[in-house]
Specification:
The protein is α/β, with parallel strands linked by helices. The protein has a single domain, classed as Rossmann fold. It has 6 helices and 5 strands, in the order βαβαβααββαα. A 5-stranded parallel sheet has the order 2-1-3-4-5, with helices on both faces. Helix 1 crosses helix 5 and helix 2 runs parallel beside helix 4. The chain is globular and about 40 Å long.
């Protein structure tokens, strides 16, 4: 069993706006009982090694998609191939696999997956969560529902009230499609 249910992969954005939006969702996820690795509190030592350890310690990776994140993952950010977003995405794909990566689209313009260029272009999933125009609580519930389906032991480690909020019975998976 992993130390964290999910790793929050994201870019901070201009004026830290995206980071603040991601934090709001993360706080709601934590209120639902999820254990989330986020780079605000967990960073110590060499940054990239700390991020890789966070991914290794997590069952899934929740990828918060913005135009800037896609640009960085394509190696076209200011730091090119040395960008932390690119390295965390590639490491997540290699060590967790696409099926354990949960895409949350944080900008309306990025809802069109044809705009997911470069490495992120292979990140074609049957689903994605719309996060740009919905309350953080709703986005967090959608993520938690996916975690309940994909993370072994996630359901058993939470209260009946939590599972009721998610619409998941203790004996079967939720039938909610994202």
């Amino acid at each position: 069993m992993s130390k964290y249910d999910t790793f929050a992969a994201h870019n901070w954005g201009k004026d830290k706006r995206n980071h603040e939006n991601v934090l709001a969702i993360v706080h709601q996820l934590q209120a639902l009982g999820a254990k989330v690795w986020i780079d605000e509190k967990e960073m110590e030592g060499r940054v990239i090694n700390t991020m890789f350890q966070g991914i290794d310690d997590s069952s899934t990776v929740t990828v918060f998609i913005t135009e800037e994140y896609i640009h960085k993952v394509a190696g076209k950010g200011r730091n090119g191939a040395d960008d932390n977003c690119l390295m965390e995405f590639d490491y997540s794909k290699a060590h967790k696999g696409i099926d354990m990566m949960i895409p949350v689209v944080m900008e309306a313009a990025m809802d069109d997956r044809a705009k997911w260029r470069g490495t992120a272009g292979v990140f074609i999933s049957r689903m994605r969560i719309r996060g740009w125009d919905r309350p953080a609580e709703d986005v967090a519930r959608d993520i938690a529902t996916i975690l309940a389906k994909r993370v072994s032991g996630f359901q058993a480690s939470h209260s009946k009230e939590y599972m009721k909020i998610l619409g998941v019975s203790q004996n079967k998976e939720s039938t909610t499609d994202m």
